[in-house]
């Protein structure tokens, strides 16, 4: 095993940096990188560290002095002579990766398949098992991500890119960068909005780790009144109508027509939903009869008992505004998965800040309304917007990218992202007996989880409750993803809540139920398929949906009939042997091979 010659020197620098941290400093390493150029040598970390004389020991990643660390790369070192990532574990420097050494490419990935050459440390970061929280990337941000992070704060910036191209991680670093550097964000505060509590749990660590002062909210929690999220609209049409822009006018008329002064938003909205005649009077020219019908809801015993949905809460927020209760304003808002914003949701965010960063992918719209162009959303914030695109894939293995793209009508809005990952090869497809789909998927998921994988088992929303009950009754410890429990080795998720998440392996249950032939269904399927970093397995009892039909195979016999299998001609031909394995065994063996390969690579290092 070879050790980097500078390991001891960097350990000394790390010890020195720890010595100047205040006692209540979080147990995160004070530095993760070093850059040398004509300006000298600087260490880069999450925050500034100074010695007793006030001299800089470590510069914060968001300080201008750290710029060269992020702007230089192996293929374009500029004037940088050393770009080093320092990996620390338990206060010990355990590895050094020099992407640039002596002013030229150093420890980098091999150049192949027209893939960009990146530091090996990026590849190593991608090879880590997922943890249930978004992976840390502050030490390995790429120049194109850093450039977006530092775009000026005022105005509207759209960060788009295919699945896994780093939109979320870039947007969150941008939030932290603006919190530190942008006058507006510093003075007015910074708001980060994600679509739901599940994604909030997934990304919740990033800003505190970066020491950034920001308020993180999910869309439902923007409303600060007494109503809480308690329900979901079973019919997408109801959510679509509630989210549509005409509701702003309907609510304005509602407030103007209210005859009892002092009514709360909750009382007004309950009254509107429960009174078809009132709705007709107010919205006859704005909503068709069928659209008004889907809004009808028998009032619950009290406002507290109402099954308020996310779109109801957004309407309550609009009502609060109309009743003269202004929302808290911020200097800048960063919105993740922004493609799913409804017009009413966009209005709610615009009331809080007109300077926004919207990160998203129009192909991944899984909200009730689809936007064909970003201008349909940016118009709620202002007239001028800038769009930037990330095009290097950090998550989805190439074969999965290829398969998933078949779900997109017309091939999708964006170019196919160039993925850094091969993963574990072509997706596995297994036909099972009707009724067994979820159980088989979960047991394959448990097998993969047994080797260290984080596994997401994705089902159609209509199948979620039944599958969760099955897990509970069978004593299977699967996380309830709908409740934001992403900490278990296996997490169960409905397909409409997987936007933004990432797992080592995804087991997809009965894709035809998710991609039910509608455009929304195909996009749900696309998003679900693109959540894995290593392997995708598909379990189905009915015919596979369009875009997957070529994977259809006859049902396998329950017990493999070994004697009928052709014997491999040569015992050393492992690939043939491998192909004979049942799909779930194959998944397991693939995981084990990968682990062995990684262990042996680590030993070589
Ligand atoms: N420069 C980088 N170095 C290391 N890891 C990175 C880098 N950029 C992104 N990643 C990792 O790639 C994964 C995908 O990133 P992210 O979730 O931000 O993508 P996304 O574009 O928001 O995906 P989606 O929209 O499909 O959810 C994450 O684990 C993230 O930490």
UniProtKB/TrEMBL annotation:
Biological process annotations from GO: recombinational repair
Recorded GO CC terms: cytosol
One Gene Ontology MF term: 3'-5' DNA helicase activity
Domain UvrD-like helicase ATP-binding: 140-397
SMART domains: AAA
Keyword tags: ATP-binding, Helicase, Hydrolase, Nucleotide-binding
Protein residues bound to ATP: 161-168
Superkingdom of the source species: Bacteria
Protein name (record): UvrD-like helicase ATP-binding domain-containing protein
The species this protein was found in: Jiangella anatolica
